[in-house]
Specification:
By secondary structure, the protein is of the alpha+beta class. It is built from 4 helices and 17 strands. This is Lysosome-associated membrane glycoprotein 1.
Length: 321
């Protein structure tokens, strides 16, 4: 016959197991992502309207004499709070090229931030930041291509002018790929034209091309990808010998959300897969509660073992008498 003490011990052990399971951080089911480096010829075939090779301006282009620097693409997540929203963010609904009544890409962000450093004619380093949102500049969805059944690359290109009188246009392109069971955001491309007053005293007047060529994320069909942390992508100059602009990042400011190709409801985001950085803050409460429960049950076990040992010791003394 099972003794009452054994039943109590069994209950405590089960409770400890539950506490440990409750305290464990939930795992995110990340799809298996293979980092893909895309050649310039691939991008050119996808987006024939924009050449990958930087084209310098005519005789006004300065000769480069600085040592070239090859910048490795990086992704960082910032814990710094984003600026207080004073605008209506960025939102684009890209229709299917074959059916204009059907959504093919939904893109939403509080703001897109382009940050860079450029070299002036005096050799000094000058920082430059573009904060992009719908009411900031002349921000336009300049070009897009997307079909629901496309097995290649879809894209959307955003361009902007800092002032209505600007003669130069800057552009930012996001490339999406459709796969058998998933879709992905795989390339970010930035084109900067320095022939305008956006870059005072810049050393070289030309058009510069930058790319982030790794998979940003991969997701299931009919699901969106959502993140409430800013995510920065280090872009690499496609011409490593050009060092006029030596540090370039593109940041998606929270909350940002993207979906492509397949939609359960037209013009609406599907169920969101939350980016791993966002999940971190959601696991704090379960971890704390589970930890407290674990400590409490551990204390109960210790007290139970001590009391049981004492009872046995007293019983042995009584037997000796």
């Amino acid at each position: 016959m099972r003794r009452p003490e054994d039943s109590v011990l069994l209950i405590i052990v089960v409770g400890l197991i539950i506490a440990v399971a409750f305290a464990e951080e939930p795992k995110v089911n990340e799809p298996s992502i293979t980092t893909t480096w895309i050649s310039e010829s691939t991008i050119a075939s996808v987006h024939p309207t924009s050449s990958i090779t930087p084209t310098s301006s005519s005789s006004t282009t300065s000769t480069e004499t600085r040592t070239s620097t090859h910048i490795v693409p990086t992704v960082t997540t910032s814990s710094t709070p984003s600026p207080t929203p004073t605008h209506n963010g960025v939102f684009y609904n890209v229709p299917d090229n074959e059916d204009r009544n059907r959504s093919c890409i939904l893109f939403s962000a509080e703001m897109i931030q382009v940050t860079l450093n450029y070299v002036t004619i005096n050799g000094t380093i000058q920082p430059k930041v573009f904060n992009l949102y719908n009411s900031s500049m002349e921000l336009n969805l300049n070009e897009s291509h997307c079909t629901k059944d496309d097995r290649g690359w879809a894209y959307l290109t955003i361009d902007w002018r800092t002032t209505p009188t600007s003669s130069a246009t800057q552009s930012l392109t996001f490339y999406f790929a459709r796969q058998e069971y998933t879709w992905k955001l795989g390339i970010i491309k930035l084109v900067l034209n320095t022939t305008d007053n956006d870059f005072p005293n810049i050393k070289s007047l030309a058009e510069f091309h930058f790319q982030y060529e790794k998979v940003v994320f991969e997701n299931e069909y009919e699901r969106s990808y959502k993140c409430d942390k800013s995510q920065r992508f280090g872009l690499e100059n496609t011409d490593a010998s050009v060092t006029v602009i030596n540090v370039t990042t593109v940041a998606l400011m929270p909350v940002w959300r993207i979906q492509a190709f397949e939609f359960r409801k037209e013009n609406e985001f599907g169920n969101a897969r939350i980016c791993p950085q966002s999940i971190a803050k959601n696991i704090k409460l379960p971890a704390i509660v589970g930890g407290v429960l674990f400590l409490f049950l551990s204390a109960v076990v210790v007290v139970y073992i001590i009391s049981r040992f004492r009872r046995r010791k007293l019983a042995s003394y009584a037997a000796l008498k």
